[in-house]
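Reopening this ticket.

The earlier resolution said the output was attached, but the attachment link was broken on my side. Pasting everything inline this time so it's all in one place.
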Amino acid sequence: MTPGIKPTCTTCGGELIADTKNNTYKCSFCGVAYGYGLFDGTAAEKAAKALSIGEFNDADLYYTIVLSMDPTNITALRGRIFCAAKWKKTLDLKTAKGELTGVRANTVRSRCEEAMKKSSEENAKYFKLIKDFVDNSERYRAAKVKAGPILKREKFLLDRSIEVDDRVERMEENYERARSRNYTLTDFLLKSPAPSPTPNELKDAWDVSDIMHCAVADSGKESKKMQDQISALERRRNFYYEKIVDMEKQLFRK
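Inline output:
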């Protein structure tokens, strides 16, 4: 352990006292004991390894140990955020794993805010970007969920409109054929043409077709509005991601 730095309990924040007999550190307040290995300088390495293989609970513990000795450690602050989000790497932000909602999104936001308070002004900008990314991603996911029924309704109306138009077209053909009395013996024997519609029936069919076309047009406008909103949120999501990647190149250069 680094000289001059006192480890603190990850459970209650109390000071840990070395127990040389049992090779442990014991909390002076709540009594929880920790093995020496957690504070031997390899906690950060263990945290990084656990995070890389998706062992988020273990990684979170190790990062918490690192922060008990160095509360402003930017790698550990970032690591705990990634653990809460279940991101193994920054690239996960671009996948479905980046679309956080509910409790997980709230936990990530809380850890981002905590990291901002403990960080320098420059480093705080990085954690603010992650928080903004999560906020935007939550809106992005909600918009996609909302768009689902709208797009489904548009397709339904479009399919029904096509069916109505086909029916009207057949009615028009039968009406014109009846007017011209242009039936052949083959028409009657093979095609069995439907009875000719009356003018009122044909007018009603046209009215239904017009109503369907209006419904399709209105539904299309609503769908386009939702798709435009989703596209705007997706562009902003990509913007935040690129900014996060750029800042990481500066903050975590090896």
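Reporter confirms the inline version is readable. The radius of gyration is 33 Å. The first helix runs from residue 43 to 52.
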